[in-house]
């Protein structure tokens, strides 16, 4: 892509209205400094100096869309609790539409709390309900799907394995998107089989791709080598999900791209420095689907997503990316 072409695609992001359906979480980052080890146990004592709360999970995909100049609406479940109110408020503050967010007192809002000593994560504390419990309260979300899709230029199914993305929700989302002629992107979760077909894009990581393809997890380097399994993995996923494009994210090895109109290709990583890979997959699905909706080719969408991922892994914490940073 030359500069003019990149700018043309990125400028079209402003016209994109993306519905993100998935597991919503509140990310808490507690920052501090470590000067000593606790006398009570062999653990560091973190003196807290700051705390940040921001949208996580599927909400971070929406945050990436907003940061890139698009308009995002989220659809998901939160608890009728203080964390749920904090999450909704955090999304509203960032311009994300919460028209599809339902609060339900039968579940608690998923919260990931990361204790950070400078840039080093000391421990993560999760609060969440079992996925089957969350799945029992998704009917209201299914009932609203057709209404929420209206006016959208794309739909992302973001599965974090917390219970919202189940066959009932997927069926409702795919039906609504098909009726509205809206392209669908899938960011799957390993060990979570779903009935999915007829999508525009899927962005599994290597482990998720192996799992969905029904193959054991091997070594990325071996599978990328001549005679390796990467092409077979991608081919199986193209058939299984009836997807037009598969982007397998490979961490420090970049990504592998294969599509019905795209010859398989390995794109090396574009990261300059890697501080934190949290949320990089959220950025990839957001950029790739927005690019396709903005008129890019399949390989152009992958290249832009690869560049964006290279930006966010250079930031500490679950991060998003701006158009200027990609350019």
- What is the fold-level CATH name, i.e. the topology? UDP-N-acetylmuramoyl-L-alanine:D-glutamate ligase
User: Per CATH, which architecture?
Assistant: 3-Layer(aba) Sandwich
Average of the residue pLDDT scores? 92
**Strand and helix order:** HEEEHEHEEEHHEHEEHHHEEEHHH
CATH superfamily: Ribokinase
Overall shape: globular
Sheet with the most strands: spatial strand order? 5-4-1-8-9-10-11-12-13
In short:
This protein has 327 residues and is of the alpha/beta class. It contains twelve helices and 13 strands.
Features:
29% strand, 327 residues, 9-stranded mixed β-sheet, 13 strands, UDP-N-acetylmuramoyl-L-alanine:D-glutamate ligase, alpha/beta
Kindly describe this structure.
This protein is α/β, with parallel strands linked by helices. The protein has helices spanning 3-11, 58-67, 82-93, 131-135, 139-149, 167-180, 206-213, 220-224, 230-240, 280-293, 298-312, 323-326; strands at 17-22, 24-37, 44-57, 71-79, 97-104, 110-117, 120-127, 154-158, 184-187, 201-202, 245-249, 255-259, 262-267. The strands form 2 sheets. It has a 9-stranded mixed beta sheet, sandwiched between helices. It has a 4-stranded mixed beta sheet with strand order 3-2-6-7. Helix 2 crosses helix 10 (280-293), helix 5 runs parallel beside helix 6 (167-180) and helix 7 (206-213) crosses helix 9 (230-240). The mean pLDDT is 92.
């Amino acid at each position: 892509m030359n500069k003019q072409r990149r700018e043309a695609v990125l400028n079209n992001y402003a016209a994109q209205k993306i519905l993100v359906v998935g597991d919503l979480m509140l990310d808490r980052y507690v920052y501090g400094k470590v000067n000593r080890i606790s006398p009570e146990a062999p653990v560091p004592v973190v003196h807290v100096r700051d705390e940040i709360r921001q949208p996580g999970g599927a909400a971070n995909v929406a945050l990436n869309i907003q940061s890139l100049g698009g308009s995002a609406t989220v659809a998901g479940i939160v608890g009728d609790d203080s964390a749920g109110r904090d999450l909704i408020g955090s999304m509203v503050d960032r311009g994300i539409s919460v028209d599809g967010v339902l609060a339900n007192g039968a579940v608690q809002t998923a919260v990931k709390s990361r204790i950070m000593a400078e840039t080093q994560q000391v421990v993560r504390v999760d609060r969440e309900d079992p996925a089957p419990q969350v799945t029992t309260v998704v009917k209201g979300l299914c009932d609203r799907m057709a209404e929420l899709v209206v006016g959208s230029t794309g739909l992302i199914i973001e599965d974090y394995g917390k219970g919202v993305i189940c066959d009932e929700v997927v069926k409702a989302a795919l039906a609504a998107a098909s009726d509205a002629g809206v392209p669908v992107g899938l960011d799957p979760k390993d060990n979570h089989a779903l009935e999915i077909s007829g999508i525009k894009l899927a962005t599994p990581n290597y482990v998720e791709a192996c799992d969905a393809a029904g193959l054991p997890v091997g070594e990325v380097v071996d599978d990328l080598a001549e005679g390796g399994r990467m092409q077979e993995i991608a081919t199986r996923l193209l058939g299984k999900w009836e997807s037009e494009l598969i982007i397998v994210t490979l961490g420090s090895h970049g990504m592998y791209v294969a599509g019905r109109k795209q010859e398989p290709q390995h794109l090396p990583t574009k990261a300059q420095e890697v501080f934190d890979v949290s949320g990089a997959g959220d950025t990839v699905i957001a950029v790739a689907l927005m690019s396709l909706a903005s008129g890019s080719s399949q390989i152009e969408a992958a290249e832009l997503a690869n560049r964006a991922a290279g930006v966010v892994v250079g930031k500490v914490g679950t991060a998003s990316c701006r158009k200027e940073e990609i350019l």
